[in-house]
Amino acid sequence: MSRTEKPPVVVIGAGLAGLAAALALTRQGVPAIIMEASDEAGGCCSTTTVDGFAFNNGAVYVAVPSLLRASFQRLGLNFEDEVPMTPIARPLLTRLDSGTAVHLSDARTSYVEGERSNERTQRLQEGLGRLQQTWGPIYRTLVRDVLPQEPSLLGMLSRLWRYLPRMGGQVDTLIASCFCDDDLQAAVASTLLYTGLPPDRLPATQIIGLLALLEEGFHLPRGGMGAISAALQRALRRMSVPIHCGARVREIIVENQAVRGITLANGDRVSADRIIATCSGFEVVRHLLTSSAVPRRLAAKVRSAPLSHRAVAIQIGCSGGVLPDAFIVNHVPSMSQQAALHTSGPGIPRWLAYTNPTAVAPELAPRGMSVLELYAPATGIQSASEWTKTMTQTLVSNSLHALQLRVPGLSIKCIRVMDPHDFARRRHLHEGALYGIAPGTTPDKFFPHRSGLCGLYLGGQTTFPEYGVPSAILSGIQAAEALLKDMRASSRPVARAAVS
Q: Which of 13, 144, 231, 415 is the right S-S partner for 18, CB 3.0 to 4.6 Å?
């Protein structure tokens, strides 16, 4: 490297945000290198094969595909060419204790099985239609005008102000206003189980998760979710961007309120005057920066930002049993009792939710076999360090027992488990919190892309006011764009006052 040539931007983390940030920089002629603590790239959007079964390492399906296509386009990639996807024809089946089964897809084709099925199907479709009529414009504004931009509470309000009167309250009240049937309420509420919060504690704005299904449907990449991160890695290889796996960063070096590089766990130092950290903002503040270097603004975020839920991921390769052909299968109580699905307790769970990716992508398992995924709540602790292996073993045993009761004849061939410790250590999620910051949190609670230290930018799940695959990519793009904007500003000549 010549004396005038600057060192490449160091990107910490090779998840979707880090891969996207490095690609966005390189496309603008700014060299980058990626440092990844794990042995492979992809983070929480990757796939691991065990005994012939392909298991996802976090994300389980694609919602809001239009936003994902737009994200790839901003990176100069054609999503359809890079990642073939299959629409999920039967996205969600909910079974109730009454014997009713509700099949949810869109407002025209959703239907009810059980007592008075024709009448209740009509009510279901009418209620979904009302939701879509009311919230569809909000959803489309978010996807088109809000989420692609750098997160800002003021910016969000300026684009959504006309819809604010209908955006208050909680999800349970909103659902009850559209559906008078208890079973239909329960089924619609079960579409939001992924948030980790019961309907009475979930802001009404989170109904957007259901709108994603009604407006665009759910999709699954062929070969599993890892196909998305693999596409970004291919693009980086074509541009000769190095990804160093097994390179855990121990410290971000700061001198005079400006970054100077990183120190790796093996003691090596890498010089850099610009860094994008796409690991958790909490991780940056608590572990990668010395306490004296942490800007007050970031310290305040750590104190105020609420963490999302924790869970134990239970993934099995199996055969036998009669599995529904739906992708998501929920056995749930009434809407008012669904808090029980978010609490880990003793004994066999009465209610259960799982995904069956092989209903959509049979290639994820050997012929005639299936992959099933459950996320059992890990509650009753203040910190991931309080969670024990005994808790994991008990939760796994009880959850599998509940599954086999629901699917008689199921034969388990392979089990893969990730508990809060694994999510923290292997997936680098702060405190094992699946989404980092809790769903429904407003943008002002998230970590900013500009850290307040010269040369340090943040990306990843704690910098974006949503969660999921498209938002992870956008967070990396936005962090890179903030860096590029500041580079251009610093290179402009400064006008000097005339001297008389």
A: 13
CA distance 458 to 378: 28
Residue 402 to residue 55: CA distance in whole angstroms: 21
d(CA 318, CA 222): 20
Query: Alpha-carbon distance 358 to 369, whole Å?
Result: 8
Output the six-digit token pair for 148.
């692609």
Count of residues in the chain:
500
Of 82 and 444, the structure prediction assigns the larger pLDDT to 82
Q: What is the pLDDT of residues 437-479, one digit of tens each?
A: 998 888 889 999 999 999 999 999 899 887 789 999 999 999 9
Structure tokens at 426: 């292997």
Residue 488, amino acid: R
- First and final C-alpha spacing in the chain: 43
Residue 125, SS3 per DSSP: helix
Element (H, E) at 413: strand 411-418
- Of 204, 177, 180, nearest to 122 (Cα)? 180
Tell me how far apart the alpha carbons of residues 413 and 415 are, in angstroms, rounded to a whole number: 7
Q: Is residue 147 a contact partner of residue 466, using CB atoms and an 8 Å limit? A: yes
**242 by DSSP, 3-state: which?**
coil
Q: How far apart are CA 28 and CA 51, in angstroms?
A: 42
